[in-house]
């Protein structure tokens, strides 16, 4: 696994200043012996067995304070806090060693791995002087870069500069951001320099062309909007030679192209110096369903902007916090392309705060996220009149919701793989359908004839999959169990019962070879929805099944 950067090997030829306190103590002891009266000695009789040598007791002295010289990135207050436990009247050489090690450990923890703490020669007194020695970067080399130029690679890790001492935590964040680029991976290695008090660095690059293009064909549609879905995607991951990324997707139905048009655009700009990423997105969709990397929970259009701030990696763990502002407009209900009388567009404009973490080890990969969203109530059609045109039970536009998910993947039975994933939502309010938790479809409980046939104000979803080893190169089979639960506030007992559920079992396959990929899943429902067919003709029923197929090619 790519860790982003490697620590330098132990420095040879660099020695911290030796403490002379022990020598001073021994000298003092020797001086005392030399000052004793000098009488002619009487040789004692030789003992039968010479006594074993006894180690001299460790000298004891008082430490009332520490004085730190050299560049100290911690500051006086933090350093005093770290060294406070070593202020004592019965200090020993071991106490000084512990104080030195503690200060250096905190420096390393804060990312200052090239700052070393030494105990220089000094007069014995109640204030002990510690010296911080800083090593700096000598030369920076680049290996493996053919597509990306030196300026691009160096901008990826701005913390790494000749003549400076980089903060390892900051550099780890910058490499974590860079390595989310699918077409460029970087790793920083450090080694001892030929120059005194310097470290040389090498940025190793694994790269691919920055542009992508793909086409996929699936049967993710429905009878009313056309069973097929044709999706075209395109993207570039190094706009302006600054790693800016743009992704675009367009989906339609060959069978009913006039009824299905889905457009998605996303933009991502890394801010390496700040340790974050700014993103923006736009979607326009006539139908519900996923397309490319985009998702539609209702006919209409959405626009959003977000900022993601990356936290310092810890081993294989990556985490970040996000704040986002979205503007979503859900089109008024239509029948035969005519607006239903009394129906209005509905808008939600939520602010979302989120936290995401992902951990990779040799044994497993897992992660989770949690988001808190609340509607600002601003903008046209973001009002009770518009909301109640969809559902008269709604009593506030200032809705709140907690959302999140988790996943875990690990090997089992040697070469098999099992995985579990889940999602959740909780809201104390009655929500418009586009903000509700949906169940059913390829990304949820597989086996329903349409995507997202059920939704509720709160819900849970879970899926367990077991995947075989490769039967032939690139081909794996799998089995799965999907299940979900929904809850509604102020239930009406018909279209919105107080609770509902779905569950399914099925089989599938995954095949990839070069630029081609095929996925297939067959799911069959084990339970029926509580919503009667007389109320919703698309209400999932026990025994319903669907075979999902997706063929894709990516250039």
TrEMBL record:
GO terms for cellular component: type V protein secretion system complex. The keyword Transmembrane applies. One of its GO terms (molecular function) is protein transmembrane transporter activity. Keywords: Cell outer membrane, Membrane, Signal, Transmembrane, Transmembrane beta strand. Residues 202-510 form the Haemolysin activator HlyB C-terminal domain. GO terms for biological process: protein secretion by the type V secretion system. The keyword Membrane applies. Residues 61-133 form the Polypeptide-transport-associated ShlB-type domain. Residues 1-34 form the signal peptide. Pfam families: POTRA_2 (PF08479), ShlB (PF03865). This is ShlB/FhaC/HecB family hemolysin secretion/activation protein. The lineage of its organism: Bacteria, Pseudomonadati, Pseudomonadota, Betaproteobacteria, Burkholderiales.
């Amino acid at each position: 696994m790519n860790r982003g950067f490697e620590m330098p090997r132990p420095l040879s030829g660099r020695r911290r200043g030796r403490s002379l306190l022990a020598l001073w103590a021994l000298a003092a002891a020797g001086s005392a012996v030399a000052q004793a009266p000098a009488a002619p000695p009487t040789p004692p009789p030789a003992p039968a067995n010479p006594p074993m040598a006894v180690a001299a007791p460790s000298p004891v002295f008082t430490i009332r304070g520490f004085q730190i010289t050299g560049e100290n990135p911690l500051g006086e207050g933090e350093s005093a806090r770290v060294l406070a436990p070593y202020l004592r009247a019965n200090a020993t050489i071991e106490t000084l060693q512990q104080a030195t090690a503690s200060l250096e450990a905190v420096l390393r923890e804060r990312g200052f791995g090239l700052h070393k703490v030494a105990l220089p020669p000094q007069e014995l007194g109640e204030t002990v002087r510690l010296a911080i020695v800083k090593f700096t970067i000598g030369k920076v080399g680049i290996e493996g870069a053919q597509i990306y130029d030196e300026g691009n690679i160096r901008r990826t890790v701005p913390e790494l500069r000749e003549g400076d001492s980089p903060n390892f935590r900051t550099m780890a964040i910058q490499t974590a951001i860079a390595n989310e680029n699918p077409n460029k991976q970087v790793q920083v290695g450090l080694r001892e320099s030929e120059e005194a008090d310097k470290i040389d660095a090498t940025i190793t690059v694994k790269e691919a062309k920055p542009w992508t293009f793909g086409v996929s064909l699936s049967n993710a549609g429905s009878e009313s909007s056309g069973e097929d879905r044709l999706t075209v995607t395109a993207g570039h991951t190094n706009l302006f030679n600054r790693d800016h990324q743009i992704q675009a997707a367009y989906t339609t139905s060959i069978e009913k192209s006039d009824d299905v048009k889905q457009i998605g655009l996303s933009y991502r700009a890394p801010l390496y110096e700040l340790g974050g990423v700014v993103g923006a997105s736009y979607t326009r969709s006539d139908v519900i369903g996923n397309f490319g990397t985009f998702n539609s929970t209702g006919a209409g259009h959405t626009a959003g902007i977000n900022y993601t701030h990356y936290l310092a990696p810890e081993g294989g763990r990556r985490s970040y916090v996000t704040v986002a502002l979205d503007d979503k407009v859900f089109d008024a209900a239509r029948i035969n392309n005519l607006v239903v009388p009394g129906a209005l567009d509905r808008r939600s404009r939520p602010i979302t705060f989120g936290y995401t973490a992902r951990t990779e080890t040799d044994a497993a990969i897992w992660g989770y996220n949690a988001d808190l969203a609340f509607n600002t109530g601003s903008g046209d059609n973001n009002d009770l009149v518009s909301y109640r045109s969809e559902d008269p039970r709604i009593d506030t536009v200032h809705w709140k919701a907690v959302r999140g998910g988790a996943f875990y993947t690990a090997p089992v039975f040697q070469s098999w793989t099992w995985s579990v994933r889940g999602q959740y939502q909780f809201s104390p309010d009655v929500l418009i359908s586009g903000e509700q938790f949906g169940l059913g479809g390829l990304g949820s409980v597989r086996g329903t004839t349409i995507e997202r046939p059920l939704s509720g104000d709160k819900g849970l979803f879970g899926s367990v999959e077991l995947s075989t080893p490769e039967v032939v190169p690139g081909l794996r089979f799998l089995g799965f169990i999907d299940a979900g639960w929904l809850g509604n506030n102020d239930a009406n007992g018909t279209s919105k019962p107080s609770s509902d559920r779905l569950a399914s079992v099925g089989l599938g396959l995954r095949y990839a070879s070069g630029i081609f990929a095929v996925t297939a899943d067959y799911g069959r429902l084990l339970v029926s929805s509580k919503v009667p067919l007389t109320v919703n003709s698309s209400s999932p029923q026990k025994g319903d099944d669907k075979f999902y197929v997706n063929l894709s090619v990516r250039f």
